[in-house]
Amino acid sequence: MLSVNLEFGGGMELLFDHHKHIAAVLPDPHSPGTTTMRQLIAWMQTALLRERPELFAQGDSVRPGILVLINDVDWELEGELDYTLADNDTVVFISTLHGG
């Protein structure tokens, strides 16, 4: 099992049952320490996402306009979908798209 702290902002929390923080425990189905961001996003869609999946995911990634931070670092600097999660990592999802 892998513990990951998930945080949501900019309206993303509305898709996850209005939770701004989730202490998630997800299966680490392969060898421990091999779960990637790609697998986390897929797991989040089936286990946590409550509304409007089209506003969160596109293919196996998040939609454009969602800023993803891994331990306060832009995920683009960490390898995006290929980043291997570590126990107690914090992953933040912030929507940068707003209606108006």
Describe the protein.
The strands form two sheets. The chain has a five-stranded mixed beta sheet with strand order 2-1-7-5-6, with no helix packed on it. Strands 3-4 form a two-stranded antiparallel ribbon. The longest helix is centred in the middle third of the chain and has 11 residues. With 100 residues, the protein is mainly β. It is 11% helix and 32% strand.
Mean pLDDT: 91
Query: Strand count, sense and closure of the main sheet?
Result: 5 strands, mixed
Strand arrangement across the biggest beta sheet = 2-1-7-5-6
Reading the helices and strands in chain order gives EEHEEEEE
Q: How many individual helices?
A: 1
Number of strands: 7
Q: Can you give the helix content as a percent range?
A: 10-25%
Shape: globular
User: Distance between termini?
Assistant: 41 Å
DSSP strand content: 25-35%
Rounded Rg: 13 Å
- The low-pLDDT segments are none
The helix/strand class is mainly beta
Search tags:
100 residues, five-stranded mixed beta sheet, two-stranded antiparallel sheet
Task: Provide a brief overview of the structure.
The protein is 11% helix and 32% strand.
List the helices and strands and how they pair.
Blueprint: E1 2-9, E2 21-26, H1 37-47, E3 57-58, E4 61-62, E5 66-70, E6 73-74, E7 89-95
Parallel strand pairs: 1-7
Antiparallel strand pairs: 1-2, 3-4, 5-6, 5-7
